[in-house]
Amino acid sequence: MKTEFDVLVIGGGLVGLTAALACAQAGFKIGVVDIAKPNDQLDETHDGRASAIATASFRMMRALGVADVLVKGDDTHAGAINQILISDGEAGQAPSPLNLFFDSAEIEDANDGEPLGYMVENRRMRHALHICTKASKNITWIAPARVTGFNADTDKARITLDDGCVLSADLVVGADGRNSFMRKLAGIGVIDWPCNQKAIVTTVEHDLPHNGIAHELFLPSGPFAILPLTGNRASIVWTETPAAADAAMKLDDAQFASELARRFGDFLGEVRPIAPRWCYPLSFRHAKTYISDRFVLIGDAAHAIHPIAGQGFNMGLRDAAALAEILVQARAEGRDLGCELNLNLFEEWRKFDNTLLTHACDVFNRLFSNNFAPLKHARRLGLGLVDKIAPARSFFMREASGQIGDLPPLLRGQAYNNTSYESDAL
């Protein structure tokens, strides 16, 4: 087995595999270490979630070849988000008429005529990433394997596996999720705080077409999101207090469908759950630093947020794109891939944006997840006012589609193809 790499990615999840693929496309030799057998994560019952992929993030997926697996002519696993309707209300009642409506047609120049984003089921994305990483000559999978030790010196970083094998690399990337073992091995602490909420996730089928409209209905206990998948299907993210979520999970199928209908209304006709239900506790977690000696954190290992804005996966993709660009520039300038300068560049590039979005999501969740009358009226008025201000709508739409900020080449749709070039991203 190959034991020496340019970069070792610990964690074979969505962000870890994207980072591996991005760095491999740029010509680096990558090892992917994961605790699970690769095929174990491809089963339909492994993960019922779907992710909102911003326009810029989907351009990255095109540049990496992942979109070619997801979309083959008319056969697509990516549901377009053409419009977003944000409203405030209570279960069983009509939402407030003061709402916020985003339409991709308003920013078609900035988005090159693309939608605001795409909804992709996680299992479909995982399958596409597996196909692409397995096809890459620059990626070696080491799985199933459990990391038991990590150390770094001026020369290399070394990972010890549970079978005694030692792997070495110039840089180790921790992409092993919000409960990251690599983060603990590197001695990096976290700041975390609970939301006192759980999210129920499932997929439903409905009689009428959704026309690519994503709905975010803010209820007193938390947001209820209806997110357009392909066909007459939608991904549901139903946020509740822990007690209410646990009770909902115990309902039989007919009772559960009835509770969904109370929140849905009838605008999509009859709604039928067609997948198992999953329930996830929600919280915020942010690493105190993203870096250590020859080590960097990305994705949920660095920052785990509330799904309120659908930006968690996109934050991880931006981490991956930024890291790949820094390594490409380091190679062009003759720098050691794991040097302190590269690590500092990454943290400076990503931590401010991630911190800002993390706290913005927390504020929005606190603002909307309550039934305090003065606050309820103020937020409804705020939604209505923003809806009337075209420049404000345009800004939020460009932000949601990933068009704002210092974008690495991959997020602009530029593939590396094993070559380096001058970039204005750094």
Commentary on this structure:
- The chain is α+β, with helices and mostly antiparallel strands.
- It has a domain at 4-79 and 119-192 and 283-368: 3-Layer(bba) Sandwich (FAD/NAD(P)-binding domain), CATH 3.50.50.60.
- Helix content is 33%, strand content 29%.
- It has eleven helices and 22 strands.
- The strands form four sheets. Strands 7, 8, 14, 15, 16, 17, 18, 19 and 22 form a nine-stranded mixed sheet that branches. Strands 1, 2, 10, 11, 12, 13, 20 and 21 form an eight-stranded mixed sheet that branches. Strands 3-9-6 form a three-stranded antiparallel sheet.
- β20 and β21 form a beta hairpin.
- The longest helix is centred in the last third of the chain and has 29 residues, at 340-368.
CATH superfamily of the domain at 4-79 and 119-192 and 283-368: FAD/NAD(P)-binding domain
Care to count the β-strands? 22
Q: Give average pLDDT, whole number.
A: 92
Beta-strand residue fraction? 25-35%
Which residue ranges are poorly predicted, with pLDDT under 50 across at least 5 consecutive positions?
419-426
Q: What overall form do the CA principal axes indicate?
A: globular
**What is the name of the CATH topology of the domain at 4-79 and 119-192 and 283-368?**
FAD/NAD(P)-binding domain
Radius of gyration: 21 Å
Name of the level-1 CATH class of the domain at 4-79 and 119-192 and 283-368? Alpha Beta
Intertermini distance:
36 Å
Q: Number of DSSP helices?
A: 11
Q: Which sheet architecture does the biggest sheet show?
A: 9 strands, mixed
Question: Would you identify the CATH architecture of the domain at 4-79 and 119-192 and 283-368?
Answer: 3-Layer(bba) Sandwich
How much helix, percentage-wise, in residues? 25-40%
Task: Quickly give the structural class.
Answer: alpha+beta
